[in-house]
Amino acid sequence: MSTPVTPLEGKVALVTGAARAQGRAHAVRLASEGADVVVTDICAPVSESVSYPAPTPDDLAETVRLVEEAGGRSLSAVLDIRELGALQDLVTRTIATFGRLDIVVANAGVLNWGRLWELPEDDWDMVIGVNLSGTWRTIRAAVPAMISAGNGGSIIIVSSSAGLKATPGNGHYSASKAGLVALTNSLALEAGEFGIRVNSIHPYSVDTPMIDPDGMAEIFGRFPSYLHSFSPMPLKNVLADGVSTLADFMPPEEVADVVSFLAGDGSRSISGVQVPFDRGALRY
Q1: Active site residues
Q2: Tens digits of per-residue pLDDT, 19-30?
Q3: What's the CATH number for 12-214+250-279?
């Protein structure tokens, strides 16, 4: 049986943190498979304590351009996922524009570094607020509309390998990503009766601005023993032309492969599952 060229034809997806990197890769991949894609990002610094550069409105506009170039219609909004009202307004616009919402990729997240007992209170609140509470607000805004549409659907929550394995130096990030596992599993049970499946993915060492050399050098320079908790990726991917990709970082498009699978009908019986995406690093 042949696979449809556009398996997501007629579907509508919402992707948060979509201005660049993983979020952009997910949005463009879903559009290339036939979906219309709603993209959102804060497009501004979340905090001065986050050392890597923030996305910009131009970045989000480029994602819209790439989504449309890939064949999807697009809707965009600059918003903070810590604000429930803004998310609800965007979902309302989505339904008014496209008539439905089928796929949610809760991708937005933030990272900074520090030992747990030395973290400024604002840093703890920021990371938990964006990664965990912001994801819950995304779900809070989206799920009622998905239920009302009556089409079932797929929710993909982007956690991290840090949600499955403790990582020193960013325990607040690890706590937020571990919290997403519980959110995923509970929501899978609660939303299952409406045909909505919910899964989390757990990438490791993806080549994005969040891989911040200066921030990592500072924390590992102070605490070199922490390096042992950050495993290399043992599996080197070999492309069709025989060229190997770098073993150190994965391109966001590799993660988009998993998002695409979980968004489509091929995963229709998969829910409440954690999918490590780390080329085997968690086995070290």
Answers
A1: 173
A2: 999 999 999 999
A3: 3.40.50.720
